[in-house]
Give the backbone structure.
Amino acid sequence: MAEIALSTAPAHLRHGSNSGQPLTRRDGLLKVTGAARFAADHHPPGLLHAVIAASTIARGRVVSLDLAAAMAHPGVVAVMTPAHKPPLAADPDAKTNPFMFRLDLLQNDRVRYAGQPIAVVIAETLEAATEGAALLAPRYQREPARVGFEDATVFTPPAVGVGSPAEVVVGDVAAELAAARLRIEATYETPAQYHNPIEPHAIVAAWDGEKLSVDTPSQGLAMARARIAGLFGIPAENIEIRSPFLGGGFGCKGMLSGPQVLGIMAARLVGWPVKLVLRREQMFGPVGHRAPSRQTLRLGAEAGGRLRALDHHTLTASSTFDDFFEPASNASHTLYASPALRSAHEAVRLDTGTPLFMRAPGEATGSIALESAIDEMAAACAMDPLAFRLENYAEVEPISGKPFSSKALRECYARGAERFGWTARPLAPGAMRDEAGLLVGWGVGTATFPALMFQGQARAVIRADGTGLIECGAQDMGQGAWTALAQIGADGLGLDLEQVEFRAGSSDLPDAGIAGGSAHTATAGMAIHAAGADAIGRLAALATGDERSALFGAGNAGVIARAGRLYRRDDETRSERYADILARAGLFEIDGRGSGAADPVALARYAMHAHGAVFAEVKIDPEFGQIRVSRLVGAFAAGRLVNPRLVRSQYYGGMIWGVSFALHERAVVDPRSGRVMNANLAEYRVPVNADVPSLEAILVEEEDPHVNALGIKGVGEIAITGSAGAIANAIWHATGRRLRRFPVTLEQVAGVAG
Amino acid sequence: MYAFAYQKPATVAEAVKLLSADPEAKALAGGMTYIPVLKQRLARPSAVVDLSGLGLAGIGVSGGVVTIGAMTTHAAVAASAEVRRAIPALAALAGGIGDNEVRHRGTIGGSLANDDPTADYPAAVLALGATLRTDRRTIAADGYFQGMFTTALEPGEIITAVAFPVPEKAGYAKFPNPASRYAMVGVFVARGPQGVRVAVTGAGQGGVFRHTAMEKALEKSWSADALAGVATPAEGLNADLHGSAEYRAHLVGVMARRALAAAG
Amino acid sequence: MSLSVSLTVNGVSRTIVLDDPRVTLLDLLRERFDLTGTKKGCDRGQCGACTVLLGGRRINSCLALAASCDGAEVLTIEGLAQGGALHPVQAAFIAHDGFQCGFCTPGQIMSAVGLLGEGQAGDDPERVREGMSGNLCRCGAYVGITEAVLEAGRVLAGREKGTAP
C-alpha cells in the first residue's frame, strides 16, 4: 500500500510504503539467467568486429603501420588510421565545458601515453580483427617518458576535482602548529589505480544515414549523446544510446571515452554495424584512472588531544594534455574541528592517459592519509584513536563554519564500536596475538562523503487502467536504480510497485543526470518524485473539478493518493479510482513532469554529508608478513534509505574497495617504457572472495530535513573512505610499524626489504 | 593469435608423427598456459596438435609407485583417493594449483612440459625423484629440468605419464601469488627410497632446484630445528613486483619449515 | 581450414563448421551461438566471468579452443533454469543480493553450481569463499555470493535427502 500526501505534510515525510522496503532487485531474474543483455551482447545483422591497436610507447610518434599485412589477413575489411577515417565535426582536443575531456580519436600520429589507440582494424570476425590489429606492427619515433613525480615540473593547478580551489585556508596554520604542544608530520603515498569494471568498455554502433543507434555502457546518457552529436555534427535527437545495464562503472563510464567513439567512427567508415570491445589490457590507458598521490599531513594538538592545526598537502599528477587533479586534500574539509585548517594541491604532468573520477575521487585518496595521520596524532597524544576522534568531533563543518544538515556520526561511532568490541582494545600496539600466533591489530577510520545532487528530469504517467509508468533515463551500474527508483516512482504515484512500469537506461528518455558522485538516487529520485506529484496533481484537478466525482470540491481539503485511488484528505470515505477519473474525463492517460536538483537555499545554509565509522581487525603472519583483514564493521548514516538491502550491498562493496585500496591495488609503471607492467587481472590485484571473510554494515538511522525532499543522501562511495584508513591503522596496531606507502605489501610488513 | 592449423590425433604415435614432421607444430595439453601464450602472440605455431584425444588421463598405484597419465587434470589428482592415500602431499599440491576452473583443465603433463619456474608440479617431481615416461623413453627427474621453460624433452617428444615412488614422508607448502595462486615460493620436502630431497619452485631464476643444504640438514635430523641454521642465499632468486629476491629467500626458509610440519 | 565441431549445449546438440581454429569456446558461445549470458571479462582465465560447465566441471571457456571441445557437453547460464524454475543457486543469488552490476554473475553462478557439484565445500563458509575465488566481482558482492552458495547447498542437500528411498 503506497500513500503520498499532497498538501499538508512536509515533503520530506512523504515516504510511502514502497520506499524503505528491502526488496530484491527487479532486474535480478534477467541477471541470474543470463538474459540481461549488456552492450557487447548485441548482434545486429551484418555486424563487423573492430579491435583497437594501442601504442606500446608512452610518448613520441607513430612512424609507420604495416597496413598491407593487416589488410592481407583473411576477413579484415578496413584499417582506420589518422589518414583513413571518417571526418569529425569537432576537434577531439577541444573543451567547451568542465565535464568534457580530450579524446584520442586518431587525430594525428602523436602518442601521448602508453595504451593510446593508434589504429582500429575492422573485420568479419573477432579473431581476424584481433590478429589484424597485431599485424600492424607499428614503428615509432620514441621520446623519453615522464612517469614519476620526479620526472616533471611541479605546479599549482588552477582548480582540482570539478572547480574546487587548489588551496583553501582557515585560520593561521603556521602559528597554530608552532603553538601546539604535540606535532606530527607524515608523508603518505598512494598509487595509480584503474577502475577495471569486469565489463570492459564496449560499443555496438549502427548508422542509418544520419541516424545513429548505439549500445554502450554509460553512466551519463545525456552527456554521452551530446558529446556524440557534437563530434559527428548531427542533432542529438538522431542518436539513441541504450545502456540498460552497465557491467560496473565506478567512474570510468561517466564520460564517453575515446574507444567508444572509435567504435562509432568505425561503423561510419565501413557502413556496417560495428562492435568494439576493449581488451583487458586496454582498460589501462584511454578510459581514465585514479591519479597517484604523495600527501603530506602536518598536525598539531594540545596535550589533551584537541587539534590546533591540520595541514593537508597533496602532490598529484595529470596527463600532459588534459586537466584532472585528484582533490585528495579536500578530504580534510569536513571531519575534524581545528582552529587552523589548510588544504593544498600541487601537480605534475606525466605521459599517462588523463586521470578521471574513480569511486570516491579525492575522498578515498585523501581519507587513507587523513585517517592515518589522525591515528598518528592520537598515538602521539597517547589517546585511544576513537576517543581522539570524538575529542575533535566537528559540530559545524570546519572548512565553512556551516551547520550540518544532519550528522549522525556519533551514533555511527557508538554502534560500530559496540558491535566490534572496541573497548577491549589495548592502547599499545603489538599487544595482541590470536591462538595461531598471528599478530592482531584493531583500527578505526571515519567515513565521509558529500551529499550531492546533479540535475535530472523524469516523466510520470497514470494510464487508463490505473497503472503507472515512470520514464527516466537513469543508469544502473549495479547500485540498483532499476529497483530503488521504481520504488520511489511507485510511492510518487500512490501505487504498489507491481502496478508501475519503469523505463530507464535509454537516451530517448528524460535526462536523469549522471550516475556518479553518489548523487543519482537523490537526483533522479527527486525528479521521479516530482513527476509523480505532478501527475497526481493533474489527476486530482480533474476529479475535484468534476461535479460527478466523489471528490468534487475537495480542492482545498486536499487529496491523498493511495493504492490507485484518490481519497479526500478530511473524509476518506470519499474516494475514487484513478481509472474511473480518467475514464470519465475520456483520457487515455495523464502525465506529469518533474525535475530534481539541489536546493540552492539549503546549499547556502548547510553542509551536507553522509558519515560513518569503520572498525577493522587485521591478522598478520609474523613469518612472512601476510595480512588478512579478518573483520570489518562499518556503521553509516546517510539519510533515508530507499532500499536497505541494496544500500547494505553498496556499503559492502565500498568496504571491499577500502580493503583493496589499503592492501591490493597498484598500477606499476615501467620507468623506461612508461607502460603499466601489470595491465591484467592476475597482477593488478583486486580482492577475491577469500580476501574478505567477514564484513558487517550497520545502517544508522538519520533524518535529514534539508538535503532534499526525500531526505536521501548517497551511499555508493562513502564506505571506501574510513575503511582503507581503518585497515592501515590496524596494521600499525598489530605491528607497531607505521606504513605510509599504499598498498601495504607483504614485504613492508615482513620488514625484509621495507 | 597467429593463424594456425588444428589437429587432434587419436594415438600417441600419430601425434608424435605430426609433431616430428613439422618442427613449427606445437602440442596442446590443457592449454592453461599455452592458450594465453597464443593470445599474446608469444608463440607462432604452424599447427596446434591437441593431445586430448590420446587417452592419456588416468591414475594407477602399484608396487609402491603412483603413476599419473600425462593428461590427468589437477582436479583429478587432487580428488583421487589413491593419490590421497599414497602421497597426500601430491594431492594437496594439485589441489592448490590456480583456481578450480584451471584445475579442471590444466594437466600434469602440460605443466611439466612447459616447466614454468613458478609451477607447482616440478617441485613434487624433483623432490619425490619421479620418473617421466615419454613416447620413447623414461627420464629421471634430476635430468629433466634444465632451467626455466627448458627440459630434456626432444622436439616432438610427448610425456605420456609420470611415475612417483611413494615416499615415507612428504610435505609441500607454498606461498601463492595473492591473485593467481602460482607459487611465489613453494618447497616440497620428501624422505624416501632416495633419501631426503628438498625441491624449491617459484624462487629460482633457473626454475625448480634442489636445496642441498637443507637436504643435508634434514638427513641428520628430520625436524624444523635442523633447518634453523640453514641459509638460503638471495643470489639467483627471482625478483618482481610481488617480491624481492631477499624476500623470496626468506620465504624459502618459512615454507620449508611449513612443508616439514605438513609432512609430519 | 575448416573444422566440424559437434557439441551439446544446454541439452541441445549443435554442429558448426568453424572456418578458424582460433575460436575459443567462449567466442563460439557468444558470437556464433548467440548465447551471450557467458561473459568475457579478461580473455585470459583471470576473472572467471566466462565460467561454464564442460562435462559437468567448471572451466574458463576463454581458455578452451572450441575445436578441442568436440563431442563435449556444455552447460551455460542459459541452460540452468529448468522448465521456468530457477536453479536453487540462481534463486539464492537474488535472495541474498549476490550481485550488483550482474556482469560477473553468470560466471559466479556457474562456478557455484560447479562447486556444489564437487561437494568439497559443504557448509563451511571459508571453503566456499576459497572455492569461489576464481571469480572476481569488482562490485564487491562477496558477502551475498557466499551466503547464496551456502543456502543453495542446503537446498540441494535437502532435495537429495528428500528423494532418497
